[in-house]
Design brief:
This protein is mainly alpha-helical. The chain is built from 15 helices and two strands. It has one domain. Keywords: Acyltransferase, Membrane, Transferase, Transmembrane, Transmembrane helix.
Length: 422
């Protein structure tokens, strides 16, 4: 999901936050993750349009090259969104008190204007599919219950992440209060509980797949909690004044901090290689649709892998070429709007091989212009030349017309803590 996070900006022009300083690189990661999801959907829909059959849960492709695994198992990047969410909110709230009403006001201003604009557009586009109970489910924190939410494909197809994110929003002030007062151990126990619930679910339920990756808290809370724990490492790494409240660090965690500080590029290379290795394993093991016992622990492991990528990228982000950083920051600004609108853009300019009559698309016929062109090259060109420009254009309109004006209404919601942390 694309996960919106509050943070101050430098010269990129985005609305600033009053609650946390700018962390260079987090916006890059959000933008990269959002456009990877866009590329994933555009790419596979393009293949299905010109080279059927279309990829479905029952016809899931398998990567022949480790470098192509992220194009297939792109759902991993949703985990990055949730990692970043827990990470940045912990930087905001550690050793502080959160005023719950003001905090939720900011969260509503950050997410709901874009979300509701797209939702009401979908209702206007497909009025025959409107149902009051499904509308209430979608417009509240229960939109990740796919059987009960409005099905307005392609407009609402990616909306489930907004519901999961809002569920995190509701409980975060309590989680950070627990961390501030009791340390990190209760969060580790919560992660252990999620693993336990998935173990029970594997034997009692019909789909460990859905418990694992898709819409529900038992498969997603790991990422948010591990993002919170990762923020503690980041504070040690950056010599945050609040580090004294964290207590002593073990040699293992101190070694990670030292590697990030002294060997940023090697750390990033290791993080990227680990992510590619995980995605290759997923692809070769059957990918998202696979029902397997190892998906009990997979969300926890995947969250640790994504946290390593996040931390190691933050180590190298300040060293990148300045124009490149500005481009990444620009894409990061658009990331939430891009995520919300990307499915409707794909349906318009690429089409949908499963609903050709309603969404025929506007694909460029490279396979006719250049006979013998590899299918993957054809799909890549159509995605880059059609879906990317259209998504950026619509995202700019969403961002400047809705998202940014409402973000500027946000207020400070933290206060200095009167209690010493353990």
């Amino acid at each position: 999901m694309l996960r919106p996070v509050p943070q101050a900006k430098t010269s990129s022009g985005a609305a600033s936050s009053l609650n946390v300083a700018y962390v260079e690189g987090l916006d890059h990661l959000r933008g990269f993750a959002a456009f990877m999801v866009l590329f994933h959907h555009g790419f596979w829909v393009s293949l299905g349009m010109h080279y059927p059959p279309a990829a479905t849960w029952n016809n899931w492709p398998k990567a022949q090259n480790p470098l192509f695994a992220p194009l297939i198992e792109t759902h991993v990047f949703v985990t990055v969104f949730f990692i970043v969410s827990g990470f940045i909110f912990t930087l905001v709230g550690f050793d502080k008190k959160i005023v719950y009403g003001k905090y939720m006001r900011n969260r509503v201003l950050r997410v709901m204007p874009v979300f509701l604009t797209a939702l009401f557009f979908g209702i206007a586009l497909f009025p025959e599919q409107f149902e009051w109970d499904a509308f209430i489910t979608t417009a509240t924190i229960f939109g990740d219950m796919t059987g009960a939410a409005l099905r307005l494909h392609p407009v609402t197809t990616a909306f489930w992440t907004v519901a999961v994110e809002f569920q995190f929003y509701l409980i975060f002030p309590f989680l950070i209060a627990i961390m501030n007062g009791q340390g990190s151990k209760p969060l580790v126990w919560m992660i252990a509980l999620m693993i336990g619930l998935r173990t029970v679910g594997f034997f009692l339920g019909d789909s460990i797949r859905d418990l694992h990756y898709w819409h529900l808290i038992p498969g997603r809370l790991d990422a948010f909690l591990i993002g919170m724990l990762g923020a503690r490492l980041y504070m040690r790494w950056k010599h945050d004044p609040r580090v004294a409240k964290l207590g002593p660090s073990s040699p293992f965690w101190q070694g990670i901090v030292t590697a990030l500080r002294d060997h940023p590029w090697a750390s990033f290379g290791f993080g990227l290689t680990t992510l590619l290795g995980w995605e290759w394993f997923l692809s070769q093991s059957g990918g998202y649709p696979k029902q397997a016992w190892w998906k009990i622990w997979a969300p926890t492991w995947e969250s640790l892998v994504c946290l390593l990528l996040v931390l190691s990228y933050l180590a190298v982000a300040p060293k990148l070429w300045r124009p490149l950083k500005r481009l990444f920051a620009f894409l990061g600004d658009l990331s939430f709007s891009t995520y919300i609108c990307h499915f409707m853009v794909v349906g318009l300019v690429i089409g949908d091989p499963l609903e050709l009559e309603r969404m025929p698309g506007l694909m460029l016929p490279f396979h006719e212009w250049f006979p013998g062109i590899p299918p993957m090259v054809d799909a890549t060109l159509n995605t880059l030349l059609l879906a990317f420009p259209a998504a950026i254009a619509l995202s700019i309109l969403f961002y400047n017309g809705v998202e940014r004006p409402f973000m500027r209404l946000r207020i400070r919601y933290t206060q200095a803590s009167d209690e010493a942390a353990p």
